[in-house]
């Protein structure tokens, strides 16, 4: 079995993959991979292969049974790759929401049947949870006002908001939602979880199905959406749900931007219908420069970078190595993408 590394990772992580000990060959030629722009960058700087390099790359693809990463982290390159890799049976993707990339590649039914795709779901839960609570505290403790007071050397006093005793609704109880729930509990918050089937989790105080979303939102002081972008979740958090939020509530979105009606959210933030938002994902991405979310003082903004970490590659490789052992043993892989929902 040949395992091809199609995204840039650190040499020590390549050795980690080689030492799983299953007797397969690791195909890794770093000079054919783009240079990372920052730690754990899976797209890298644009790279143009010359004729000889392209021939080497195509030869690797022809021998690959398993692939780590989508070349260029791009649906277009995924589509081009699959056609040159007749032996390929499984791709370990580096994104938690890689189902969207697979859907955008428009692969043939035969290719979707031939190749199993797995995501990195679970790797980014802690970093996204930390980002959400950073933003929630910025808004609850009114950091903008604190900075103005400091700049003016003013000694004014006011009552700050607090998290203890408040209610947080988490829409989507995957790895990100569970990580948020654990931190919320540490802050002394009451935690409500919303999932498709209303399944209970020990990390939350009450569970509801999505059919009760408006009811849950109406009783919450903060709401965070962690759902993936699929046809079933598109604008699930729409005008009705946004309109049900309390005026002093904070909204968070750290899953995929397509889950939220962004225009309705902007209107609510502008009008003061809700207190603020903590946003890592948008529609479209990159967000156009003239979008008002860039400059709203009641928005804590990240350009879809809150999940990234210097430890990300190592965590994805750990997941990949576990899946390699499962693949070799014929056991079910973790985080398989559904070919119907692309999630």
Reconstruct the topology from this structure.
Elements: E1 2-5, H1 11-18, E2 25-27, H2 51-63, E3 66-68, H3 75-83, E4 90-92, H4 98-104, H5 109-114, E5 116-118, H6 125-140, H7 143-152, E6 167-171, H8 175-186, E7 190-195, E8 206-209, H9 213-218, E9 222-225, H10 239-243, E10 250-253, H11 262-271, E11 276-279, E12 299-301, H12 312-329
Helix pairs in contact: 6-8
Structure description:
The chain is of the alpha/beta class. It has two domains: 2-122 and 309-329, NAD(P)-binding Rossmann-like Domain (Rossmann fold), CATH 3.40.50; 125-301, 3-Layer(aba) Sandwich (Rossmann fold). Helices cover 35% and strands 13% of the residues. It is built from twelve helices and twelve strands. The strands form two sheets. It has a seven-stranded parallel β-sheet. A five-stranded parallel β-sheet has the order 2-1-3-4-5, with helices on both faces. Helix 11 links the parallel strand 10 and strand 11. The radius of gyration is 22 Å and the shape is elongated.
String of helices and strands: EHEHEHEHHEHHEHEEHEHEHEEH
What's the mean pLDDT score?
Answer: 96
Stretches where pLDDT is under 50 for at least 5 consecutive residues are: none
Q: CATH class of the largest domain, please?
A: Alpha Beta
Number of strands: 12
Cross-sheet strand order for the largest sheet: 8-7-6-9-10-11-12
Task: Find the CATH superfamily of the largest domain.
Answer: NAD(P)-binding Rossmann-like Domain
The end-to-end span amounts to 27 Å
Reported for the largest beta sheet, the result is: 7 strands, parallel
Silhouette: elongated
Q: Give the strand content.
A: 5-15%
């Amino acid at each position: 079995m040949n395992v091809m590394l199609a995204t840039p990772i650190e040499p020590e992580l390549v050795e980690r993959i080689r030492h799983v000990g299953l007797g397969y060959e690791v195909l890794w030629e770093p000079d054919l991979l783009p240079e990372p722009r920052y730690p754990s960058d899976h797209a890298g700087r644009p790279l143009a292969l010359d004729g000889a390099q392209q021939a080497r790359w195509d030869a690797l693809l022809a021998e690959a049974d398993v692939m780590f990463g989508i070349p260029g982290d791009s649906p277009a390159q995924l589509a081009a790759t699959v056609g040159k890799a007749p032996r390929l049976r499984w791709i370990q993707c580096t994104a938690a929401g890689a189902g969207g990339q697979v859907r955008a590649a428009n692969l043939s039914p035969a290719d979707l049947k031939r190749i199993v795709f797995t995501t990195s779901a679970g790797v980014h839960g802690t970093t996204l949870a930390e980002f959400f609570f950073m933003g929630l505290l910025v808004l609850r403790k009114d950091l903008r006002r604190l900075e103005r007071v400091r700049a003016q050397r003013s000694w004014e006093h006011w009552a700050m908001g607090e998290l203890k005793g408040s209610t947080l609704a988490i829409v989507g109880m995957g790895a990100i939602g569970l990580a948020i729930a654990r931190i919320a509990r540490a802050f002394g918050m009451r935690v409500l979880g919303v999932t498709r089937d209303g399944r209970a989790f020990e990390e939350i105080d009450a569970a509801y199905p999505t059919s009760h979303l408006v009811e849950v939102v109406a009783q919450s002081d903060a709401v965070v959406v962690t759902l993936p972008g699929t046809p079933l979740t598109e604008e699930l958090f729409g005008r009705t749900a946004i309109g049900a939020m309390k005026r002093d509530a904070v909204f968070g979105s750290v899953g995929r931007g397509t889950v939220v009606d962004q225009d309705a959210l902007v209107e609510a933030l502008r009008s003061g219908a809700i207190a603020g938002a903590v946003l890592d994902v948008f529609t479209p991405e990159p967000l156009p420069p003239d979008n008002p979310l860039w400059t709203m003082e009641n928005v804590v903004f990240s350009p879809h970078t809150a999940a990234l970490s210097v430890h990300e590659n190592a965590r994805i490789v750990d997941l990949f190595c576990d899946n390699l052992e499962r693949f070799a043993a014929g056991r079910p892989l973790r985080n398989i993408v559904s070919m119907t929902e692309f999630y």
